[in-house]
Amino acid sequence: MKYHHLLFPILIIFFIVSPATISWADDLGISEPDTFGGDSETTIQKLDGRAFVVPPKSISDIEKLLNSQRPTDPKQLDADRILADSEPPLGLNDSKKSEFYYLRSQANARRGRSNEEIRDLNLALKKPSRFIRNIREDLAEVLIETGFVDDAIDSMRKIRSDFAGHGNGFHFRNHASDASLLARAGLLDEAEKETVQAEILYSEIRSYRAYDNFGELWDCYRFQMLGLVQREKGRLDRAIQQMRQAVKDCKRLVERGYQSSQGGAISEEAGSFRLRRKYGRAVDLYVNLLVRAGRSAEAESVIRTAIKGSLAGTGPNSIVTTNHLLSLSNVLLAQGRLKDAETITSKIIGFHTAAGLAKNNTGKLKAHLVRARALAGLGLWREAGAEFSFVQAAIGDRPSILNSTLRTSPAHGLALSFSGRNVEAEKLLSALITFNREILGEKSITTALSRGALGVVLNRSDKDDESLTLLEGVLPIVSEHSRRSALESTRDAEFNQWKRIIHEAYLDQLSKVFAREKDPAISMKAFEVAQLAASGSVQKAFAASSTRAAAGSKDLSDLVRKYQDLVQRSKNRNGLLLSRINQAGGQGGEVALEKLRNQISDINNARVSLAEEIEERFPEYSNLMNPKPVSLKTLRASLRPGEALIVTHVGDEKTFVWAIPKSGEVTFSASDIGREKLQKDIGSLRRSLNPVVETLDDIPAFNVKLAGRIYREILEPVAEGWKGAKDLLVIPDGPLGQLPFSVMVTKQTELEAHPESYFASYKKVPFLIQSHSVAVVPSVSSLIALRNFPSNKLERKSFVGIGDPLFSKQQAFEADKNRKKLQVTDTRVTVRGLPIQLRAAPKLSGVSTADIALLPRLPDTAEEVIGIAKVSKADLERDVFLGREATENKVKELNLSKYKVIVFATHGLMAGDLDGLTEPALAMTSPAVSEEGGDGLLTLGEILALRLDADWIVLSACNTGSADSETTEAMSGLARAFFYAGARALLVSNWPVETISAKKLTTDIFRRQADQPGLSRAQAVRRSMVQLLNGPGYTDQNGKTLFSFAHPIFWAPFTLVGDGGTTVY
Asked: Is the pLDDT confidence value at 821 over 80?
């Protein structure tokens, strides 16, 4: 096949890209919607006064779209392959040879072969060409994307000397391009100087007649420049605004095309590809900015739309599409959706393979690396290790931008160790430590993580002395970094995973020492380590809400914003430092490297000073974001007589438990039961507590033997520390948060074979609740903060309740038509088939997209709210808000600080339950029903902004439902948010409650509180549960017991979270 026709001079002056060609350039969800849709339409969220379309909760639509794609036009693929592998035809003059190499560079670019693209662009520059500007700009872009920063800057600067005599429009582009590149390279001072020159020129050319033709082109360059400079300054909100405009202008540029005289185009096809690529890069930069700012839902919305458009316009194998898919995988990784990220990267790898790309292709290797990180996060270490090893082998000794990850992440070494390859892991991590120590310093968090990972490997290899010494040295650095990073607007899930693994290895080492020496000081050291290890996915929501939590104080808000700006600048500088080292195989120019190190040191010193000021002036805020470990002395001072604290930490292979009484000896144990086995056992128990049933006969038996075994594994080894107390405060970790400790069985027992009535045999089971009250606290620091609450001085109303929200127009219609009263008893039905009414729970796990309208209504909660209101002697007209009145706006309008008891009888949701939901939330009446603003969700961040003075918050339908740690942690996160806002305790439901027993339980608890003001919350809950358990049960109109409430499904659905003591008035 001959290519001479590709090199014929193009006589047209303009080229236009038709709308059909760029169907992928549809609006990216970044415009202002005119109206909100109805129930069935996609939810719209507002952020910073701007709306965006919320993405679905799953990627099934993207998967379906990708699976339906045919490869990019085979003829185009063949043409690119042949051109990429061909040589210039004989007889071409130098100008035509330059054009040939430029076209070949684009063929290589479309195939994702960045090394070959760089080669061809350099070859094109060796010959005279009228397209020299485009060639140099393209070269600079691909060089910086592959990590060759200095070469990229050099290429861009040569444009100025090559075209000194051109007009202001041309010079504006030069200065804007230079500023953008310098900002991406981290050279802020130089970038700002170029920006000043570019802005001066822009103010002139803006009035030129030529602006009508080139306006989109100039604006595209300008706003990208401004956005990147603001990003380098750490001002992400401003950067996002500028980059959003750049995306819009670049999109209009693609739709309209531009004159070839502005830099030149060999052909319409060549120019079209440049524009599509420039627009695609702007979108990917914009998405990256949104992720860095913690706005991952918005980022996902933007990149989803871009993917759908690029698939339609350029096909699945195009570099634009695969880069967008890579951006999506990074968004999913940031959201903690590891399985989805792994799925998308597998698709990218498949598309690259179908396009015939080499194994060492940079884009393909980036996908392999993200897949490796996702697999490691999922705990699939063997598979992750294989991916890391593949990338390492493909790179070899070549300089690569991917070395920034491989040389700073301990994930590869950990993956090898958890795959049983400890010798290889030890060798790899030792080399990693040497590199990071030389480049970043001994006290760098990157170096510390590498050393900590080696400590983990040594622990797994039974090299105890070496492991203990190494881990003791790195823990202070890791812990301090964890506390400082809590003030950021985003939270690194990978760091949290590595931190947990390192802390658990140290706990294992300490437990071995304690087993030998029985030294109480060792158990107390382990206790402090366990506090440091406690962190998880919900902490990301607190990080994302850090600015909102600080909004109550202008001084605090300003300090937090300054701190977050410094964080971004530090990350930019660290990335640049590693990039400069990698681009020359470790030789980045010592003078430049030392300058960068000094800048990083100065920024980090400023961060430390600001963090210390925040902690000193605003201790409550610091304690919420990431608390310091509490000493035994401080903890005991907060315990009341008759109380004991039980702290747990569930590791991969062991469970660590401490029992700390008000006075006396602290007991400590390390049981040989890990997370997976404990999850399985507790999941088995929960199946009898959270069943799908219609009649009493369907309720599974509660496995008292298994409940007894869990008691013997967890509580019995530390019994000496808690049995003398009457009130237990429990910090449950992982799977233990899914099972109320009150249902643990303290002695071996058998159920009576033929009880007098249904479930009556459970009355004789020695449940822990028979002897001890149980209250849950999220953390040791939460307990200290709760006990330091000021005494109530102002007069407060007794109660306010919000319940029976309406989640769709259909529910509102049915409610208006016939607000039915619940009928539970029917004496004509046999006892065995007696229907049971369980409160509705959301069924969202099996759907790919879900908005608030999918939530089931909770009509029985209206009676519950009214029942508690009556025993609390509340004003039913003034203090009860049901149905249409149970809105998000109503909650925010009320002065909630005037109420002792606040009831939210509605669904509790966790991140990912609904489309675009990235933090725990309570569901309120839908805006489609109330015709108010908002999204109908009271999120964790919005709860932080409330001002409360409440003895109780009741979440009576906030089911921690599914038996997984993330759900439990989400509810714990809601509790911490309410505590920060000013609540002392929460009553939270653990599973969909049976309505009759639930109403009996809640009304009895608050009746006791109202009648006995000196009774503690913990004892009020315990006595109500015991009375329900031992009482007559459910009776007919003649007083005959039809069934007992002694099964835990009836008496144990609620957990007291927070301070179980008596409120001081």
From this structure: no
pLDDT at 85 over 70: yes
Q: What CA–CA distance (Å, rounded) separates 357 from 342?
A: 20
Hey, CA dihedral for 904, 907, 913, 914, is it positive or negative? negative
Sorted by sequence, the CB contacts under 8 Å of residue 389 that are 6+ apart come out as: 412
Residue 657, strand partner residues:
648, 669
Q: How many angstroms separate the CA atoms of 634 and 526, rounded?
A: 16
Q: Is 312 exposed, middle or buried (0-12, 13-18, 19+ CB in 10 A)?
A: middle
| CA angle in degrees (0–180, nearest 5) for 221-224-228 | 140
Decide if 754 contacts 670 (C-beta within 8 A): no
| CATH number assigned to the domain comprising residue 964 | 3.40.50
pLDDT digits 0-9 by tens, 487-503: 554 556 788 888 899 99
**Tens digit of each residue's pLDDT (9 = 90 or more) over 949-968:** 999 999 987 664 444 556 66
Token reading at 335: 């959201």
Q: Domain check: are 609 and 652 in the same one? A: no
User: pTM for the complete prediction?
Assistant: 0.81
Question: Quick count: other Cβ atoms within 10 Å of Cβ 1027?
Answer: 15
For 14, phi then psi, to 5°, come to -110, 155
Tell me: do 914 and 1049 sit in the same domain.
Answer: yes
Residue 57 lies in a domain: no
Residue 721 is assigned to a structural domain of this protein: yes
51 backbone dihedrals φ, ψ, rounded to 5°: -100, 150
* Res 675: pLDDT: 92
Of residues 785 and 627, more confidently modeled: 785
**Reduced to 3 DSSP states, what percent helix, strand and coil does the chain have, rounded to the nearest 5?**
60, 10, 35
Number of domains in the chain: 3
273-293 per-residue burial string, b: 16 or more CB within 10 A, e: under 16: bbbbbbbbbbbbbbbbbbbbb
Closest by CA to 179, choosing from 131, 147, 140, is 140
Residues 834 and 738 in one domain: no
Domain enclosing residue 596, as ranges = 546-629
State the average pLDDT over residues 619-642.
Answer: 84
pLDDT band per the 50, 70, 90 thresholds, residue 819: low
Q: Are residues 969 and 1053 in the same domain?
A: yes
Q: How large is the C-alpha radius of gyration of the chain? A: 32
Domain final residue pick, 610, 629, 648: 629
* Rounded Cα–Cα distance for residues 779 and 482 (Å): 16
Phi, psi (deg, nearest 5) at residue 184: -65, -25
Question: How much is the pLDDT for 43?
Answer: 41
- Dihedral in degrees, nearest 10, Cα atoms 362, 366, 368, 369: 130
pLDDT at 381: 93
- Between CA 556 and CA 562 the distance in angstroms is 10
Q: Are residues 711 and 745 in contact, defined by beta-carbon separation less than 8 angstroms?
A: yes
851 and 952 share a domain? Answer: yes
Task: Give tens-digit pLDDT for 339-388.
Answer: 999 999 999 998 888 777 777 778 889 999 999 999 999 999 999 999 99
Amino acid identity of residue 320, one-letter, is V
| Cα–Cα distance measured from residue 987 to residue 842, given in angstroms and rounded to the nearest whole number | 20
